Automatic annotation (TrEMBL):
<keyword id="KW-0732">Signal</keyword>
<dbReference type="InterPro" id="IPR006664">
    <property type="entry name" value="OMP_bac"/>
</dbReference>
<keyword id="KW-0449">Lipoprotein</keyword>
<dbReference type="GO" id="GO:0009279">
    <property type="term" value="C:cell outer membrane"/>
</dbReference>
<dbReference type="InterPro" id="IPR036737">
    <property type="entry name" value="OmpA-like_sf"/>
</dbReference>
<dbReference type="Pfam" id="PF00691">
    <property type="entry name" value="OmpA"/>
</dbReference>
<dbReference type="InterPro" id="IPR050330">
    <property type="entry name" value="Bact_OuterMem_StrucFunc"/>
</dbReference>
<keyword id="KW-1133">Transmembrane helix</keyword>
<feature type="domain" description="OmpA-like">
    <location>
        <begin position="103"/>
        <end position="220"/>
    </location>
</feature>
<dbReference type="InterPro" id="IPR027367">
    <property type="entry name" value="Gly-zipper_YMGG"/>
</dbReference>
<protein>
    <submittedName>
        <fullName>OmpA family lipoprotein</fullName>
    </submittedName>
</protein>
<keyword id="KW-0472">Membrane</keyword>
<keyword id="KW-0812">Transmembrane</keyword>
<feature type="transmembrane region" description="Helical">
    <location>
        <begin position="64"/>
        <end position="81"/>
    </location>
</feature>
<dbReference type="InterPro" id="IPR006665">
    <property type="entry name" value="OmpA-like"/>
</dbReference>
<keyword id="KW-0998">Cell outer membrane</keyword>
<feature type="transmembrane region" description="Helical">
    <location>
        <begin position="35"/>
        <end position="52"/>
    </location>
</feature>
Amino acid sequence: MKKRTLIVAGALSLSLALAGCTTNPYTGEREAGKAGIGAGLGAALGAGVGVLSSSKKDRGKGALIGAAAGAALGGGAGYYMDVQETKLRQKMQGTGVSVTREGDNIVLNMPNNVTFDTDASNLKPAGANTLSGVAMVLKEYEKTAVNVIGYTDSSGARAHNMTLSQQRADSVASALITQGVSAARIRTSGAGPDNPIASNSTAEGKAQNRRVEITLSPLQ
């Protein structure tokens, strides 16, 4: 029984480490996230502590309880975000939306050709469908704050761009709320032409700068 329980605990450790893996969008290869590895190691160490600290009769139960507790401590917020990132990557495949990891934060970059027509703040059908997929993940992972920022290129008056970018961020937030995401988790802002990710001297660069970014962060 003891041997069987330790095998189960070991399998739990391995599955947690694998769950923390993500697929590199450029190479297509699986990569282990640090938090996933931490959760796996935590589960293994926790199982050992559970065995040593339990009576002979309860060692099997102690190993499993220790493994679960160790996984939680080993992974922490990073593991929570690892799993959420994996699900978002699956949902966003083929949508034109990029998913980037920045520490414990996840950034979704929604280009304007997916979300809005030129100089408009009403979501395109494709953008609304994409946000439906985002909302499904956000409802499953409720311990995440959602920061929505709208951006424009440098064309036109700054005041107009600031207003337009705010309206677009608000439209994205409204779509998420309509899909069941709590409004209390969401903040919005419009940055206009600030923080460009490409040169505004070319049409291609301007197209990249017209975007909405959704940053997901662990709730403190």
